[in-house]
Structures are given as structure tokens and as C-alpha cells.
TrEMBL record:
NCBIfam families: PRK00702.1, rpiA. This is Ribose-5-phosphate isomerase A. The gene is rpiA. Pathway: Carbohydrate degradation; pentose phosphate pathway; D-ribose 5-phosphate from D-ribulose 5-phosphate (non-oxidative stage): step 1/1. Coiled coil: none annotated. Homodimer. It comes from Pontibaca salina. Pfam families: Rib_5-P_isom_A.
Length: 262
């Protein structure tokens, strides 16, 4: 089916397509979650089907696992893989140090486990995800359901002691019930506006007993492939800074914009 993509979807698509160029035969690849990562999974599926690419994928959520199987990618568990060559995932925000906020789709725990078990993490994002300072996007924190309101209060007290702007830790809902992650936990979204010291906040949050993990990815991402609504792509590398034209151009014959959106 041919569909005209919105500029935002086009940006996500071109970023995903370029990032797929990093995937090589024989690799074990972490597959992210979300609308941008879904483009990547579909692209890798095409490469498996049309080009004979041989990879094993470790999904970061049940929905990514379903999509990966649907498009013909061999899916294995992280324990079977043991270690990954590369993880490619989306993000909700990235800053100039390539630190991230993730978890808008509730998959942050598996995403962080998979990304930190990889030689390299590449993030794919539309330019709208780039920020000067992290925090405009509510920071997801995964907490165990047992005693979650006590955990919520302890988080809010920690935010006050850190003098972090905005202190509301809101339980994420799915209709009338709490949103439940793939690991059976809840998500508290921290409305902070601006995170001055993301490293410190990440450490403080993870010291609270009911907190399983937080959505700050500090020093984990190596490269961001940024997509623009006009089809341009830029590469940001943690070691090299901004790098342009580092990747091969998409072949003329590629029908870039005929896929369906997520
Ligand atoms: O839990 C979800 C993930 O962290 C996503 O990678 C993140 O929310 C970005 O999603 P999207 O590509 O849909 O904006």
C-alpha cells in the first residue's frame, strides 16, 4: 500500500533506513521499541527478505518481538545472544552529549538492559527529539506495583532535595487502570521541565527501593542518526561530534516513502 508520509514520519523513516546500513551479516542486533524503531525493524525485514541479510534480533518489547517475527527476522533472547554487536533504538529526547530520555512507550527497562549489553548503541530520531537540556519530556521511572505510592512519595521528596524543577510524579494510566510494563511494573512520569544534572538524578532515583529503572540513558548511546522532514539525515557521534555524509546515499531505486506508518 502506498501512503504519503507526514514530514515527521518521513524523518523517522529516513533515520531508520540509514541506521540499517550499520547492520552487517552475522550480527546480533538489539531491536528497539516505538514508532521510529518499528521503521528500522521493517527495513531490516526487507534486507533479510530481499538481500539475504543474516542476523539475529533481540527485541526490547513484546510488540517489537511480534513485528520482528512478522517481517521475517530471527528472534532470540538476550540470554541466548549473551552479547550484542549493535542496538538500534528510538528516543524521546537526546542532548548534545547524546544522553537520552527513553521510555515514552514504557519499554525503558528492557531497552536499557539490551543497550548496555551491546558493543554499540545507535539512536534513530527525528530532529524534534533534539534538546539543549533534557527534561521537557516527562521522565519515565519504572516502579514495582507493591507500595508504589510510597515509592512515588520518596521520589518526590528526592526531587525536592535535589531542587529539581517540577515535582509531579504521575502514575501512567492505560484507560482506567495503571499502565503495566512487559515486566509487570508501573511507570511514574516525572514532570520536571529541565534536568540540570541528569547523571546525579539517575543515580538518586535508582537508590530508591521501589524503583526498578529510570529512563535516563547516560553515556550509553554512541551515535544518533537524525532524520529531517525533507528526507535529509545527519549523524551525531559521541566521539566525532557532528558528522555529515558519513553513510552511503540511498540507492535511486529505493522507493523510500511507500511503506505504511506504524
Ligand atoms: O519506551 C519506548 C521507547 O523508549 C521509545 O524508543 C521512545 O519512546 C521513542 O518512541 P518513538 O520513536 O515512537 O518516538
Amino acid at each position: 500500500m502506498t501512503a504519503e508520509l507526514s514530514p515527521n514520519d518521513k524523518a523517522k523513516f529516513v533515520a531508520a533506513k540509514r541506521a540499517a546500513d550499520f547492520v552487517e551479516d552475522g550480527m546480533k542486533v538489539g531491536l528497539g521499541t516505538g514508532s521510529t524503531a518499528a521503521w528500522l525493524v521493517r527495513r531490516l525485514g526487507e534486507m533479510v527478505r530481499d538481500d539475504g541479510l543474516q542476523i539475529k534480533g533481540v527485541p526490547t518489547s513484546t510488540r517489537t518481538a511480534e513485528l520482528a517475527r512478522e517481517v521475517g527476522i530471527e528472534v532470540i533472547t538476550l540470554d541466548e545472544a549473551k552479547w550484542l554487536d549493535l542496538t538500534i533504538d528510538g528516543a524521546d529526547e537526546f542532548d548534545s552529549d547524546l544522553n537520552l530520555i527513553k521510555g515514552g512507550g514504557g519499554a525503558l527497562l528492557q531497552e536499557k538492559i539490551v543497550a548496555t549489553a551491546s558493543d554499540r548503541m545507535i539512536v534513530i530520531a527525528d530532529i524534534g527529539k533534539q534538546v539543549e537540556t533534557l527534561g521537557a519530556f516527562p521522565l519515565p521511572v519504572e516502579v514495582v506495583p507493591f507500595g508504589w505510592q510510597v515509592t512515588q512519595r520518596l521520589i518526590e521528596e528526592a526531587l525536592i532535595s535535589l531542587d529539581v524543577l517540577g515535582r509531579e510524579a504521575a502514575l501512567r494510566m492505560d484507560g482506567d487502570a495503571p499502565f503495566v510494563t512487559d515486566e509487570g511494573n508501573y511507570i511514574l512520569d516525572l514532570h520536571l521541565n529541565r534536568i540540570g544534572d541528569a547523571r546525579q538524578l539517575a543515580m538518586v532515583l535508582n537508590q530508591i527501593a521501589g524503583v526498578v529503572e529510570n529512563g535516563l540513558f547516560i553515556d550509553i548511546c554512541d551515535t544518533v542518526v537524525v532524520g529531517f522532514g525533507d528526507g535529509r539525515v545527519e549523524l551525531r557521534d559521541v566521539k566525532k561530534g557532528k558528522v555529515d555524509g558519513d553513510l552511503p546515499e540511498a540507492p535511486e531505486s529505493d522507493n523510500l516513502f511507500t511503506d505504511q506508518t506504524d
